[in-house]
Design brief:
The protein is mainly beta. The protein has 4 helices and 12 strands; from the N terminus they run E-E-H-E-E-E-H-E-H-H-E-E-E-E-E-E. The strands form 2 sheets. The chain has a 6-stranded antiparallel β-barrel. A 6-stranded mixed β-sheet has the order 10-9-8-7-12-11. The mean pLDDT is 92.
Length: 159
């Protein structure tokens, strides 16, 4: 089973063992759920509580009830098993890299990079015979197939 990087513990919060995690994982709502298990230093910890505070994901783990019990977790990376995330038809950004991109008129390319033009505007850098930037949340994307590892697009005239 593959471990998916979720974020990093940056500090504690308060004296009751709550920790702050900074995460830019795209599906936090599927990860930070009470009862799910996070992996830190190859050991699993169950999420006992969760809340969002500013840009941080705040969690308490297992039966840790005191700040001194969680200090050993500071600055550690946080992972989760891929099977536990339950993505369904959703695709992780890291998996989209190197997907084939097929146009409806028969061109074939490959996704080389995923980046954000703004916080809610994910862009795909696709290499055909020339490089093209395609907005991920646009009507140009017709289908994403996890099984075939390909994205079907309909490019607008001039691309």
């Amino acid at each position: 089973m593959r471990e998916i990087y979720i974020g990093r513990i940056v500090s504690t919060h308060g004296i009751k063992g709550e920790i702050k995690i900074i995460s830019d994982f795209e599906y936090n709502d599927k990860v930070f759920v009470v009862g799910k298990r996070l992996i830190i230093d190859h050991k699993q910890y169950e999420i006992k509580s969760y809340r969002k505070h500013k840009q941080f994901d705040m969690v308490t783990l297992d039966d840790y009830k005191d700040i001194n019990e969680v200090l050993f977790l500071m600055k550690k990376k946080v992972y989760m098993l891929e099977d536990e995330i339950e993505l369904g038809n959703l695709v992780l950004d890291q998996d989209l890299l190197n997907y084939s991109v097929l146009t409806v008129d028969g061109k074939c390319g490959i996704i080389k990079e995923i980046f954000f033009g703004s916080p809610n505007n994910k862009l795909l850098r696709v290499m055909f015979d020339k490089e093209i930037i395609i907005p991920f949340n646009s009507p140009m994307i017709k289908e994403i197939s996890k099984e075939r590892k390909e994205v079907v697009v309909e490019l607008i005239e001039g691309m």
